[in-house]
User: Fold these one by one.
Assistant:
Number 1:
Amino acid sequence: MKKRILGRYDGKKRSWFRQFKEFLALLLLIVLLFQLVVGVFFVKGDSMYPTLDDGELALYLRIVPEYHRGDIVSVRLPSGEQYVKRIVGLPGDEVDFKDGRLLINGEPQDEPYANGESAPEGNNLTYPCTLTADRYFVLGDNRIQSMDSRIFGPILKSELKGKMVVHLRIIRRD
């Protein structure tokens, strides 16, 4: 029978290697989770104030079977710009503005989260604007300082990257 010189360390080597493999598997699972299921973004600017503050960390769910009016979403335009906005118009809806209010299908919307008056901004859209299939109308909650569908027009469903599920208020506004 051969005597192993470092025999008493064999168990520790195997234990370390097993822990390393478990760590790698966990790391791979986390990377896949954030690539396929969950997205992370930092809110830039005040376009969603008071709902979201500049600098807040938010997580969004990438796998969303259906979007609804009022959902806060991550939007990535073909230009590469990424925004956080609220869906106000769904495919088939008629979007209009009158007397500082948003109208969907002719009905004034109750928007307790909106900051400032809702008014059309300068772009190619004529109002009322009827959304075609697969198009959504998004607005920032801070209507005065928001770059949204009033500027860049209705967005495609493929430009919606996910629905916000949680946000962490890192910076407090006084």
Note: Helices lie at 10-36, 149-152.
Number 2:
Amino acid sequence: MSCPPIPDESLGFLLTDATRAIRRRFEQRATELGLSSAQWRVLVHLLRRGPLSQARLAEFLEIEPISVSRLVDRMQEAGWVEREPDPNDRRVKRVVAKCKAHAAFENARQIADDLYEQALAGLPPGALETLTDALRRIIINLSDSPEAQNDR
């Protein structure tokens, strides 16, 4: 009995491989800033949402709280973030982006924009919009949000 072929061109594999390629290239280019892709993701969440607890960061990043703690430790040592007491709960420390993070954000954003331009080169007109809409739909379809529940 023969086994079925391995689906290396499946949607899941293609999405994973594309994400890995983008992350790897970003890390190559962002080394001049001293940022890993994981640190970049932390900064984006902090700069978009403001100070966050480590537990909330872990939720947004979809990683374990202990991993966030180690990541924040390294970022604090490098001067990207600091921990401060939460004004509503003295047991909680919030992670706050420091001036260094704000200053580097535009440089990292430019690296990301250049990378996406390179990644999307050669796509036909309208393909980016179609791809973006399709990815949003996938996220909604697989989300536990009320919007997803209403859409089903």
Note: The chain has two domains: 23-121, 122-152.
Number 3:
Amino acid sequence: MTDVAQPIPAVRRSRFERLRDSDIWYSFRRSPSAVGAAIALTVLILTAVLAPLFAPQNPYDMAALELWNSELPPIWLEGGQWPYVLGTDVQGRDLLSAILYGSRVSIMIGVASVAVSLAVGLSLGLISGYFGGWMDNVLMRIGDVLLSIPTILIAILVSAVARELLPLGWREAGSAAVLVLAISLTAWVQYARTVRAQTMVERRKEYVQAARLIKVPARRIMAKHILPNTMTPILVAATLNFGLAILIEATLSFLGVGMPPTEPSLGTLIRIGNQYLFSGLWWIVLFPAIQLSLLVVSVNVLGDWLRDALNPKLR
């Protein structure tokens, strides 16, 4: 009696092993610019999130500020003192601490605005592309109106109006929420247009038609079947818009309609430092500007790499 060959059971690979052997990981390893940007962005985010561990001073604690240590230059210049590595501002606030805490505020607002824009854009894009008709026309015309006005002007208008409507005691506490709302008001349109275009293609395919025939609810079809097939361009757009959101927040704070001086973001620090630029205190504006540039450039480099890595025509 001959032995029947037993089938070899399939070995289930972990998610980490699948990622390690994937094309996108291979592309990432072969791109020095993407690796460098990822390392820089990781360091910037970790030092911002863990600012209390790295910062010599809490810039929000007025009791910790020492006016006799104000306007100190960076430590490598004459007159610099330890632990004020990057110097101090006119209030005696350690500039390195202010930059780390300010980066945390900027990153938090960038992440929150992208999350809100994604939630609104994905929902409206799916509804518009799946149902079409008058609903599609109304949503897309609203998007056209918002896109016809420069984003920064809408953000300034929303931020200024919201601050006037809020009670006086809530204005500083609600500054971050107002900025997220102002940035998200126009950012959702790009996601909605992208998802709408993908949804209009996917809804005509056989698997969607089959789901409709067996009476699968439209909500489940959009969430379980159509949405996963639209995530590639959305992921690229979200990465690039993260850097753009940080830049818009910095612009609003620089113009005085963003974060207050009591909770400074990078844009607020640049605005404060710009007032003393011609007084010889160049470090107050230079180092926050460098931090902002590194943060935005790192995000944009990663976004450009991701766009190329996920493009099937370039594989």
Note: Residues 48 and 103 are 6 Å apart (CA to CA).
Number 4:
Amino acid sequence: MKLAVIPARGGSKRIPRKNIKQFAGKPMIAWSIEAALRSDCFDRVIVSTDDAEIADVARHHGAEVPFIRPANLADDHTGTIPVVAHAVQWQANHGPAVDAVCCIYATAPFVQPADLRQGLEVLQRSGTAYAFSVTSFAFPIQRALRIGADKRVEMFQPEHFNSRSQDLEEAWHDAGQFYWGRAEAWLAGKQLFGRDAAPVVLPRYRVQDIDTPEDWERAEWMFTALSRTSA
């Protein structure tokens, strides 16, 4: 059995109610739910939430909300892995056992069904515990700057001041969209970022973290531009 788990707690502070805030004509979470359903990868698409309004919106857009997430898994300090592990254990206690689980973030309007299918293929082909979405940094991280408390600039790695960009190793970061994993890896709390994970590479123009109002505005611009391109 293959399970999609979309974590969506109600306590977002920087963008209040961001999981169900309207984005391009739909509640934000609807984009993740619809991508999961259209991917045809999953036997169940579950939203894990502690919030009744989010639960109602999720059900309206086709997801299941078979439980309310416990309060101890809905605070500001709880990470993704225990939330997904809770959903996997709930499913094991109430129905067929799960073999592969995909955590899809509720604020991932750029996630595509084809990307989810590719992620499952990578997980199965690689034999790793996880396969998750990544994209490349737009600039060499070896030439990154910091601004100190005295408002002066310095390099993180000053030894690369004279290095040419093309001579520096390309760096990647978590795209913040989806994380396929084997059920036993989630249940064991196995670390996501490590040698037992395989990348699912996404283009930078389809990746935007959404944590602040500025992120949200940028995501809307990107979404509008992509919609026009594909129209």
Note: The beta strands are 2-7, 22-23, 26-27, 44-48, 100-104, 130-136, 145-147, 153-155, 172-182, 197-201.
